[in-house]
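Known limitations

Files may contain more than one protein. Parsers should not assume a single record per file. Below, a two-record file is shown to illustrate correct handling: read the sequence, read the token line, then continue until end of file.
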Amino acid sequence: MRKIFLFLLSVATPVLAQAQTPRDTLSQVMDDHWNWWLSTHPVEATARGVRTYDDRIYDLSLTARAAQIKAEQAFVARLEAIGETMLAPADRVNRAVLLWMLRDDIAGEAHQAERLMLFTTYYGWHQGFAGMGDGLPFYDRADYDSYLTRLSLYPKQNGDASPSPGRRSRAAMFCLAPSSAIMPPPSAVSSRASRKRPASTSR
């Protein structure tokens, strides 16, 4: 009998060890998401002390963007599989916030602004790259070697930012379309300029 008991215990122990509560599952998803985010934002990872991706910069290619959306959809599916009612209030908030962030980025792909418009009048990838060193550590030779490696990757990043006619045409549309609303056509400007200013009347 004792041998039978020990055998059953040895079989049941791994099963019990693998059993996870909803909170455990949520924590695992959040940890996985954070590690994934760091891998897709290597410069920010270095700035936060994670040195695994010191030889990388942000991938602006359309292929990378598609992979990011696919990964985010997988995280959404994992979060939706967690029963919200079985979570503590604080965990519900964490789940809801992460779901909102993921769904918002996925929804943005519908109009492709993030995918196709990589610069505005306020910011562009070239400006971000120029200021990259501001948040990086420079304590030893490895830090400088990492920075030099990243500098060498800029030509590829710059090329990835506009590799296809589709991205260039859509980016031009995003940038130029609003100008019609705030800038009158040249004919209107010349017409207004040719008008005589009304004579002032003195009191």
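...continuing to the second record:
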Amino acid sequence: MAKLRIIWKSFKLAYRSKRRFFVAVFMYAALIVATSYILNYVIVSSLPPATLDAMQALGMVGIASVLVLTTLISSIIYSLLISGYRKKEIATLRTIGWDMGSLRWFFLSELILVFVVAFVLVIEIMIHILGFTQYASALIGAPVIGLNLVAINPVILIVIFFLVLACQIGAILFGYWRMLKIRPMEAMRKA
């Protein structure tokens, strides 16, 4: 029960810094969408009958790898920002007796919150776009031509979810390591 209280406090604190929270959510959402579309295109194009030659497929895999690397770097940068901005809070919590496990949950839940909100936002927008295109096609009485441009295979979305989550875990470990180096007295003097 104490962990849920810590997670809830972290959620409230993350939402309180609205600008940084929303920028990170939209950044993760854009990376999720871009990586999903590239991966979807590579997988669908490689199915028989193949329309891509080997060089095009290799280029698309390269772009997907760059997007995954960008996601990892973005996750690390965001965890560095959070650990930097939260120095005073972390120092205060350590001073009043929070153990490192509670601080880990505090830090972990804020980073995971941003990622989960971005993923839910992507799914929500995709559902609304699909619903709108279906509604528009029913109104005009003709099938929508570009529907496959909007739809992302759910299996690919799940793969992207775990791929970005793996990037997040690496960033969380890096940010947590940086957070452990904060000494309460030094942070309180600087604050």
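Parsers that stop after the first record will miss the second one. For reference, the second record is described as follows. The chain has one domain: 2-190.
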